[in-house]
């Protein structure tokens, strides 16, 4: 079987990005967006409430504050992030907010934190999912957890390479199964022990007063903040919606707000409800089991399904859905992470290839990098959920704090123009104070337990991004200098078009966005082969990347720019009485599209030789080759295999 056929079976058939129905078929309605993006937050109920509850130690009655704080904070952050959706309807989330409203370097920090956040979304969701499954198996299975985590990440990578909507539809039954089973258990668990509810509040207040007498109110506040921050991963899904508005169905802003409402409501109910169950059912940790498993076991046995075996089957189904939802949540990392990388690539913080789409119109480079990074994190932490939660919470609240600070600045700067600025400012400020406070507590209290690692990783990614951007800036400056040199090339006096003859010797130039590069190649050929070529054909294949495909009218703008560039070259040749024509193409793979166009041109002009320019750096190394598209060499190889001649002209920068 040919490799292309195998690839089609595994990943699916190629999609045409220029067809209007393609974009419509891939866009997510609010319900599917809730499944694909909201699963992250909802699934954190499998580990977030437990980490919060464990952090309280012996003072478990304080968990009532945690349940209330979780529900309130979820809605505060969700409503605040609705502002992000309104202000940035093309997506970008925390990175775009920080970049536009605070500054590019704060945007960089937010972007780096988000990248780490989404890597950890994958790692922690898969690790917690395997933990949930391990709760159903003998203790001997613990040694095989890491291998199982690698297997599940591999499956998710393949699913996402097929397409985000396909992946969501496959995982949809798991999501619905989780929602139904956990809704039933939470409602039954609360009503079954409803008689304990009246005593819960006075007991909590009494324990709070007693604890304050020993460690003071500041100590109590610090303990509550630390415990609350341990469940920080609960809120990541809220950011994911604002980050991926561009993939939502029209009208995007309304769809985004509806998705955010579904997420906030389901998340507040589930996370707060589970903490309340811990309190009402006196949950106690059991070796080899999650706290959810222990609590749900007690509830299932209380319901009674006829026999011990039936109870175990029901519990197994509940935990299997919980584990399954965690794998669905890991999918959020594969949706949000590549989106952040593509936005950062647009600003040249990371290699531009992270903007490229595959034939299935997914950012496959980002998906692969996120998957590999998640595997690396899992191997480093050995799948420790406790350590992963600390790393996760630091990156989550750092992003939230920067984004909400940006919103505060925006509303303050526009206070004279907008009548409703006070309420928006107050909401953003409240969210900022909460998130910044939790971040500070995390860094101080958990610095030696993983907080330092989060800070070091984010700083290292940021330093690498600055180096990459400086390289792209220097290269862009050098290319602009070349363009300026050739911009002074005078047009000739000839008026009118000169049509090329198919039988004449033809020079075919593969050009890009740089007019200087195209003229450099044209003049070089004329100088080296004076009078030999009679026809001069220009070829331009534009890459439909995330920037072009996600933005409103971006494809049309790209088409207009490409046509303008080709017209410039053709008009230049005609003005010098040189026969000239142009060919244009669009696709996700520039090498494939150029090769196709060259095959068509060869049929029209069989006596042709292909030319293109390639950037040559004075200090060339593997990293500079990684940052720049090696399309010229790939095209040359394809054309040589097809029996066509191609010459690469060096352009030193």
List the helices and strands and how they pair.
Layout: H1 3-11, H2 20-26, H3 30-43, H4 48-55, H5 63-87, H6 93-101, H7 104-134, H8 145-162, H9 164-192, H10 197-230, H11 236-243, H12 252-280, H13 291-303, H14 308-346, H15 364-381, H16 385-413, H17 421-445, H18 451-487, E1 506-510, H19 515-528, E2 535-543, H20 546-550, H21 554-575, E3 579-587, H22 590-604, E4 608-616, H23 622-627, H24 631-641, E5 646-652
Parallel strand pairs: 1-2, 1-4, 2-3, 4-5
Helix pairs in contact: 3-9, 3-11, 3-12, 3-14, 4-10, 4-12, 5-10, 5-11, 5-12, 5-17, 6-7, 6-11, 6-16, 7-8, 7-14, 7-15, 7-16, 7-18, 8-14, 8-15, 9-12, 9-14, 10-17, 11-12, 11-14, 13-14, 14-15, 16-17, 16-18, 18-19, 22-24
Plain-language structure description:
This protein is mainly alpha-helical. It has two domains: 3-468, Amino acid/polyamine transporter I (Up-down Bundle), CATH 1.20.1740.10; 489-652, Rossmann fold (3-Layer(aba) Sandwich), CATH 3.40.50. The chain has 24 helices and five strands. It has helices at residues 3-11, 20-26, 30-43, 48-55, 63-87, 93-101, 104-134, 145-162, 164-192, 197-230, 236-243, 252-280, 291-303, 308-346, 364-381, 385-413, 421-445, 451-487, 515-528, 546-550, 554-575, 590-604, 622-627, 631-641; strands spanning 506-510, 535-543, 579-587, 608-616, 646-652. The chain has a five-stranded parallel sheet, sandwiched between helices. The longest helix is centred in the middle third of the chain and has 39 residues, at 308-346.
């Amino acid at each position: 079987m040919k490799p292309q056929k195998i690839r089609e079976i595994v990943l699916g058939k190629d999609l045409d990005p220029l067809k209007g129905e393609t974009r419509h078929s891939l866009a997510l309605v609010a319900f599917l967006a809730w499944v694909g993006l909201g699963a992250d937050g909802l699934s954190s109920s499998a580990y977030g409430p437990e980490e919060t509850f464990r952090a309280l130690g012996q003072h478990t009655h304080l968990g009532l504050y945690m349940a209330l704080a979780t529900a309130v904070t979820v809605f505060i952050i969700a409503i605040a992030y609705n502002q992000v959706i309104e202000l940035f309807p093309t997506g970008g989330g925390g990175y775009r907010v920080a970049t536009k409203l605070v500054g590019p370097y704060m945007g960089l920090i937010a972007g780096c934190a988000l990248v780490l956040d989404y890597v950890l979304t994958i790692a922690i969701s898969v690790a917690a999912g395997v933990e949930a499954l391990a709760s159903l198996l003998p203790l001997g299975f613990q040694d095989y957890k890491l291998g199982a985590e690698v297997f599940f990440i591999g499956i998710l990578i393949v699913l996402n390479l097929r397409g985000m909507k396909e992946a969501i539809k496959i995982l949809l039954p798991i999501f619905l199964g989780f929602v139904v089973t956990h809704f039933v258990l939470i409602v039954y668990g609360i009503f079954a022990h409803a008689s304990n509810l009246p005593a819960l509040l006075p007991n909590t207040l009494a324990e709070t007063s007693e604890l304050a007498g020993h460690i003071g109110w500041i100590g109590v506040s610090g303990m509550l903040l630390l415990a609350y921050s341990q469940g920080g991963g609960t809120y990541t899904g809220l950011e994911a919606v604002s980050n991926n508005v561009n993939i939502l169905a029209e009208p995007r802003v309304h769809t985004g707000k509806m998705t955010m409402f579904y997420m906030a409501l389901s998340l507040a109910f589930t996370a707060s409800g589970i903490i309340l169950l811990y309190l009402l059912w006196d949950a106690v940790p059991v070796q080899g089991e999650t706290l959810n498993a222990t609590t749900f076991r007690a509830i299932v046995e209380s319901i009674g399904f006829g026999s011990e075996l039936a109870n175990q089957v029901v519990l197994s189904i509940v935990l299997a859905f919980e584990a399954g939802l965690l794998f669905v949540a890991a999918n959020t990392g594969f949706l949000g992470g590549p989106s952040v990388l593509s936005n950062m690539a647009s600003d040249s913080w990371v290699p531009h290839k992270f903007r490229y789409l595959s034939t299935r119109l997914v950012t496959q480079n980002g998906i692969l990098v996120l998957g590999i990074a998640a595997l690396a994190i899992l191997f480093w932490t050995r799948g420790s959920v406790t350590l992963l939660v600390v790393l996760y919470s630091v990156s989550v609240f750092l992003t939230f704090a920067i984004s909400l600070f940006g919103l505060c600045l925006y509303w303050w700067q526009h206070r004279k123009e907008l009548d409703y600025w006070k309420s928006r400012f107050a909401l953003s400020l409240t969210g900022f104070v909460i998130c910044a406070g939790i971040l500070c507590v995390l860094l101080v209290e958990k610095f030696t337990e993983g907080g330092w690692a989060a800070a070091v990783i984010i700083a290292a990614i940021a330093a690498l991004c600055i180096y990459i951007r400086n390289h792209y800036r220097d290269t862009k400056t050098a290319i602009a200098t070349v363009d300026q040199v050739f911009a002074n090339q005078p047009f000739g006096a000839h008026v009118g078009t000169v049509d090329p003859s198919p039988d004449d010797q033809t020079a075919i130039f593969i050009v890009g966005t740089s007019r200087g590069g195209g003229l450099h190649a044209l003049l070089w050929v004329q100088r080296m082969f004076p009078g030999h070529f009679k026809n001069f054909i220009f070829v331009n294949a534009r890459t439909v990347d995330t920037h072009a495909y996600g933005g409103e009218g971006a494809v049309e703008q790209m088409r207009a720019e490409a046509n303008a560039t080709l017209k410039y070259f053709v008009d230049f040749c005609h003005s010098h009485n040189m026969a000239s024509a142009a060919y244009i193409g669009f696709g996700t793979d520039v090498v494939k599209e150029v090769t196709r166009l060259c095959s068509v041109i060869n049929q029209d002009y069989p006596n042709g030789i292909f030319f293109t320019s390639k950037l040559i750096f004075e200090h060339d190394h593997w990293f500079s080759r990684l940052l720049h598209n090696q399309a010229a060499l790939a095209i040359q190889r394809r054309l040589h295999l097809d029996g066509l001649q191609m010459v690469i002209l060096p352009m030193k920068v």
